[in-house]
Each structure stands twice: as C-alpha cells, then as structure tokens.
Design goal:
Shape: globular
Mean pLDDT: 87
CATH class: Alpha Beta
Helix content: 25-40%
Number of strands: 6
Strand order of the largest sheet: 4-3-5-6
Protein name: TlpA family protein disulfide reductase
Order of helices and strands: HEEEHEHEEH
CATH superfamily: Glutaredoxin
Keywords: Redox-active center, Signal
Strand content: 15-25%
Structural class: alpha+beta
CATH architecture: 3-Layer(aba) Sandwich
CATH topology: Glutaredoxin
Distance between the termini: 55 Å
Low-confidence stretches: 1-19
GO molecular function: antioxidant activity; disulfide oxidoreductase activity
Number of domains: 1
Length: 155
C-alpha cells in the first residue's frame, strides 16, 4: 500500500515538472521561460499609470519595440505594471495608453530573476548569459536602451 502511494506521488511530481508554467505570460498570448530565453536578451520595464515619467517614456518604448526589438529575434521587451492589476485591467491599460509592446499578465504572478524595483520607472536588462543589469532608473530612450542592450550582450 505504501509503495503504491510512493509511486503515485512520484508520477504526480513527474507530471507537474513536465507541465511547468512559463515564468511570465504576456498579454499578446506568448510567454517567457527564463531557461528557454538563455542566449537571448530581455528588457523588462516596470511602470505605473500614476507615474508621469513612466507615461512619458511609453512612446520611446513603443519606438524601441518597433525599430529594434521587432527586427532582432534575440531581443524581447516586456512591460510590468508596478501596481497589482488583474489581466483585464492590464489589457485596458495597454489599450488606454497605446502600449504596443507586450505586458506581463499578473495572473499567475510573473517569476523574475531580480527583485521588484523601489523606484519608477525602472528597467532591467537580462543578458544572454542570464546576468541582470539594472535597475536603470528614470526615463529611458531608444539610445539608452540600445546602449544597455549592447553592454549586456558584450559581457
């Protein structure tokens, strides 16, 4: 009897390990698994709707997404709301502010390889080797993001 419970437990653990949820699910239907993302560069921007500098940098992030990220298969940009929001609120926020890059859904909560920032706006760069740069605090431009990505890739 005990052996059958042990076998059932091991089978259940194996199924759970094989069906691991992604680390971050995005509002565009894709997801990020940090292990699978090794060898690529991920730019993570924290923002909040009440943060004026965050809202001012959104057009720059949209341009970076269109001009750089969409032309580089080894680069990803994602936004994460600093405030807790359900998935519908995140999509409404994206629509309201014309956010054209993917946003992390909050349910399930994203698993990140760094701590949540204490100030906004904050941007992290996860390099191809998994090393995290940041947070880069304050409004970012396409130029500052290009420089940070280049530095992360050269390490």
């Amino acid at each position: 009897m005990k052996l059958s419970l042990l076998i059932a437990s091991l089978v259940t653990l194996g199924v759970t390990a094989c069906s691991k949820a992604p680390d971050i699910q995005l509002n565009n239907g894709s997801d990020i698994d940090w292990q699978a993302a090794q060898g690529t560069t991920v730019v993570v921007n924290y923002f909040a709707e009440w943060c004026a500098p965050c809202l001012r940098e959104l057009p720059e992030l949209n341009e970076f997404h269109h001009d750089v990220v969409m032309n580089d298969s080894e680069l990803t940009l994602i936004g994460i709301s600093f405030d807790p929001m359900n998935n519908e609120q995140i999509q409404a926020l994206a629509d309201k502010h014309d956010i054209e890059f993917p946003l992390a859904l909050s349910q399930p909560a994203p698993k990140l390889p760094f701590d949540r920032p204490k100030m906004l706006p904050a941007t992290y760069i996860v390099g191809p080797d998994g090393e995290v740069t940041g947070p880069l605090l304050g409004e970012q431009t396409q130029a500052t993001l290009n420089k940070a990505v280049a530095e992360a890739r050269s390490e």
